[in-house]
Amino acid sequence: MSEPSSPPIDPNQLLAAAIKAAHAGGAILQDWVGRFSVREKKRADLVTEADHASQKTIFEIISAEFPDHGYLGEEGLNQTSEASDYRWIIDPLDGTSNYVHGFPYYAVSIGVQKGDTLIAGVVFDPNRDETFTAVKGAGAQLNGSKITTSGETNLQMAMGMASLPVGADPTDPAVQRFLNSMSHMQTVQRSGSAALNLACVASGRIDAFWSTSLKPWDVAAGALLVLEAGGTLTDIKGDTIDIMVPSLLAASSPTIAQSLASLFS
Q: Which UniProt keywords apply (predicted)?
């Protein structure tokens, strides 16, 4: 059976719906701050009622306009479509542990695919009221103004950000990559929100971000941001990226990407 082929939709229409939904989801997160209860799914993987409330609102807003599209979301949302090859990839709260602990570094992330191609995305930071957006072929923006990566090419002058697996022990390869990178870069951090890290690469605030433990909803929107801002996006080895596979290296320039891929190999 062949895949559905939908008539093209103006990507700006998709983006407008994504922005509206992301802002609504972010408002719910902020409303829940300080009044949620916490429960454990597994070790250090904290979940709140806010995740579910945010995703419910996001889904309701987008599906009201695009009811025949597919949907994939962090909190149990997996709705395929036989009528459309458009799919929305939603993270209603990227940076859950930060959110739970009151550390203001978390975001709503919404990406849109047509087939396997990312065509629109938004990352919304409700703490700073920053809306990062991208449309394939039209560049990336922050609150309506064009953004680009730093263009940094010197690894020793670069600032890096890494994601580490939940509960990783000192022998984990991701921990070893993190430690190894510290002697080659000006500074290396771990922040807890992949979506914002990718937005920071796109906007020139940091020069690289890498991970081997992310899900597609963590990276869909941010990946497009980086590409449209002139950055380089590969897997951790420097090969072609597949957002369904947990291996990602985003960089300000091909030179930084190649240097890190060689370092990590």
A: Hydrolase, Magnesium, Metal-binding
130 is in an annotated binding site: no
Check if 11-147 and 155-264 are the same fold.
no
pLDDT tens per residue across span 26-37? 999 999 886 756
DSSP, collapsed to helix, strand or coil, labels residue 196 as helix
CATH number for the segment(s) 11-147: 3.30.540.10
85 is in an annotated binding site: no
Distance CA 252, CA 204 (A): 7
CB atoms < 10 A from the CB of 49, how many?
Answer: 14
8 Å CB contact between 242 and 221: no
Instruction: Give CA–CA dist 235/242, Å, rounded.
Output: 8
- Classify domain 155-264 by CATH architecture: 3-Layer(aba) Sandwich (3.40)
Nearest to 138 by CA among 15, 9, 255: 15
Torsion of CA 141, 203, 92, 102, to 10 degrees: -130
Give 95's Cβ-side CA count (13 Å radius). Answer: 27
**What is the model's pLDDT at position 38?**
61
pTM for this prediction: 0.93
Distance CA 82, CA 40 (A): 35
148: exposed, middle or buried (Cβ count in 10 Å: 0-12, 13-18, 19+): middle
Would you tell me how many other CB atoms lie within 10 Å of the CB of residue 80? Answer: 10
Annotated domain spans of the chain = 11-147, 155-264
- 91 marked as binding residue: yes
Quick one: average pLDDT of 159-171? 90
